[in-house]
Design goal:
mainly alpha, 11 helices
Length: 254
């Protein structure tokens, strides 16, 4: 108990167990629908660590989650696509990090809520769409993705239409998207750490939670073959909308 309280005051063993379960379930559900892991975890950890710590912690957590996926599909990686998109996104994420640490906590919480709710129709709109992958388009979208990824959850959805426009699908799409996320999140960890927005205790907690997502991604593949993916997708969308609304309400009443 003393060790837990040293890491994060008020953290209890029960909260830790629930966090482990949430990370596992979120990874499993996200693995089945292709989206939602980071958003579900965000809804759980925001009241515990505060809205200003969410993006730095999620950056560490999702680096681990995406690293496992990139490794699993490593033979399908597209190095040139990764270099182009991540190379543009990382510098832009530094600008986003600078803005994020200067934002008020209530504003961050309200913004998180709005983005979480907006992510549902955005995911539906981008699903199956392909964007013309001209170099200026790729650079513009990659820069927007990098900047927004340091401020909000779910900015990675901007990259998927670009990758699909390159003709990537299946394992190649999953691997390349995950590798880009790993590089961008690594950059964000460095930036947030240099800005004192990611403490050692929060980093440790994020690493533990990130490791808990790995088994969930393995379980997802087993579940997908036995259940209707639409049910899980609708469940995640409903949870995200409800949770996002609660964050907005909290930011307006505090």
């Amino acid at each position: 108990m003393e060790t837990l309280n040293d890491l994060l005051p008020g953290l209890t063993p029960l909260t830790v167990l629930i966090a482990i379960a949430v990370c596992f379930v979120a990874a499993a559900l996200g693995g089945m629908s292709g989206v939602g892991s980071g958003m579900i975890i965000t809804l759980f950890i925001t009241p515990i660590i505060g809205p200003k710590a969410v993006i730095p912690v999620i950056s560490v957590l999702m680096l681990i989650n995406n690293a496992s996926r990139a490794w699993f599909y490593r033979k399908y990686l597209q190095p040139k696509r990764i270099a182009l998109i991540a190379g543009t996104a990382v510098p832009a994420s530094a600008l986003g990090a600078l803005l994020y640490v200067r934002m008020e906590s209530d504003l961050v919480q309200g913004l998180l809520g709005i983005i979480l709710i907006a992510s549902v129709p955005l995911r539906r709109w981008t699903a199956g769409r392909m964007m013309e992958p001209s170099k200026p388009t790729v650079i513009a979208v990659s820069g927007a993705f990098g900047f927004l990824s340091s401020i909000i959850v779910g900015a990675g959805m901007l990259v998927l239409p670009i990758l699909m426009g390159f003709g990537l699908a299946g394992p190649a799409l999953l691997a390349t998207d995950a590798a880009i996320a790993v590089i961008v999140n690594f950059g964000k960890i460095v930036f947030f750490g240099s800005l004192d927005a990611l403490t050692l205790s929060l980093f440790f907690i994020a690493v533990v939670m990130g490791l808990c997502t790995i088994p969930g991604t393995w379980v997802a593949a087993w579940i997908v073959t036995r259940t209707d993916i639409r049910i899980h997708t609708l469940f995640i969308e409903a949870l995200i909308v409800i949770g996002g609304a609660s964050l907005i309400y909290g930011s307006l009443t505090e």
